[in-house]
Amino acid sequence: SWGTCAILIIQKSPATFFLFALALVSVQLGFTNLVLAIIVDKAAEAREGSKAEQVAYKKDWERRCLKVWGEVLTRIDVDSSGTISEEELLQGCEIEHVSDILDSYEVREEDLLEIHRLMDDGTGQLAYQRF
Question: pTM for the full model?
Answer without folding.
Answer: 0.50
